[in-house]
Amino acid sequence: MTGNELREVMRRSPAPVAVVTGIDDREEFGLTVGSLVSLSLDPPLVGVSIGKDSARHEPMRNAGAFAVSILSERQAALAQHFARSGVPPLALWVDVATRPGKHGPLLEGALAWLECRTWAEYDAGDHTLFLGEVVSTELGATGRGLAYRDSTYHPA
Ligand SMILES: Cc1cc2nc3c(=O)[nH]c(=O)nc-3n(C[C@H](O)[C@H](O)[C@H](O)COP(=O)(O)O)c2cc1C
Questions:
Q1: SS (H, E, C) 78-114
Q2: C-alpha angle with apex 122: 84 to 28, nearest 5 degrees?
Q3: Is the entire prediction scored with pTM above 0.85?
Q4: Considering only CA atoms, which of 112, 156, 134 is closest in space to residue 48?
Q5: Which stretch of DSSP H or E encloses residue 19?
Q6: Nearest CA to ligand 1 atom 19
Q7: Ligand 1 in contact with 49 (CB < 6 A)?
Q8: Is 54 near ligand 1, meaning CB less than 6 Å away?
């Protein structure tokens, strides 16, 4: 059983698309994730799994907190932008409409936002599973969200 076989299976399962942002030593980082899950209501906990090879993995560990923007169907270009490799930290934010959050920039136009304190980190093979205690939530405009399935973005 290989990782590629698992990937083939999971490609058929639509994943909600979000951008996780944070601040490490005054430098803002952000990446697109399909791994956001709601885990507990009391306390309110969510999880995101971040690849250990990602340049954003260490910033995520150091930050100790993160923000999540849950993308709308109109934000596929932003999802692509925050999935790009090798973008210098400052260039990541050029022409991206944000407002400051407590734990990371919040992307304008998202469906909803979460601000989280890192509650726990678990080794998850080639990823680290970050559990975030949700300290605040905010709802944006209503509408359809963005899902990723078969390497393509879909309204959901
Ligand atoms: C739809 C989508 C979902 C993704 N989900 C995750 C994820 O849950 N965790 C993760 O570490 N990377 C995920 N990625 C990849 C990251 O957005 C990004 O490409 C990667 O962190 C780049 O690493 P680098 O900065 O080292 O090049 C996803 C990419 C896409 C397009």
A1: HHHHCCCCCCCCCHHHCCCCEECCCCCCEECCCCEEE
A2: 35
A3: yes
A4: 134
A5: strand 18-24
A6: 83
A7: yes
A8: yes
Which residue bears the tokens 């078969």?
Answer: 150
Atom from ligand 1 closest to the CA of residue 82: 17
As a dihedral over the C-alpha atoms of residue 64, residue 20, residue 103, residue 156, rounded to 10 degrees, the angle is -130
Tens-digit pLDDT string for the chain (156 aa)? 999 999 999 999 999 999 999 999 999 999 999 999 999 999 999 999 999 999 999 999 999 999 999 999 999 999 999 999 999 988 999 999 999 999 999 999 999 999 999 999 999 999 999 999 999 999 998 999 999 999 999 999
CB contact set of 141 (below 8 Å; sequence gap of 6+): 72, 109, 111
Domain architecture of the chain: domains with CATH: 18-150 (2.30.110.10)
Paired strand residues for 16: 147
